[in-house]
Amino acid sequence: MSPFLNRFPEIAARETRVVQLPYPQGGIPAGTYGFLELYCIDLKCDCRRVLLQVRPEDKPEKIMATINYGWEALDFYEKWLHGDREGAHEIRNASLDPLNAQSTYAPSLLRLFQTVVLQDKAYIERLGRHYKMFKEHLRRSIGGSDAPPSPDPRSA
Hints:
The protein has helices at residues 4-7, 9-15, 74-80, 85-93, 106-115, 121-141; strands at residues 2-3, 17-21, 31-39, 49-56, 65-70, 95-96. By secondary structure, it is α+β, with helices and mostly antiparallel strands. The chain has one domain (2-142). Strand 4 (49-56) and strand 5 form a beta hairpin. It is globular and about 45 Å long.
């Protein structure tokens, strides 16, 4: 997984989801929290999901939650996970990623993501668009299968 921000810094600066809590809510301290997007760098993988690192604006190096989310239909993830319906539900409904950093606030930040952030359909579409941009940039930058073959100078 690699940050969207590293490949598209200007777009990330404009389009990264930020939630501002003027006072403590649901166990989360008051503050501004960014949901930084990370996407899969495996060109053979078409997982159509994002890892979101939730970071406070005042301490951007601190990861408070890592959320795994997929925007496609449940059937897509069930097929991708070879029939694992429970795993597909976890991805589709958003879940805390078990392999990455979490803080004591992570469960509350996940609820905030599920109940507030995911209500914005335009944001969900944006994640899908960012995924496509990321994968296309990756293909071009490392000469993936979509890249035209380089001409062989010996054949001229």
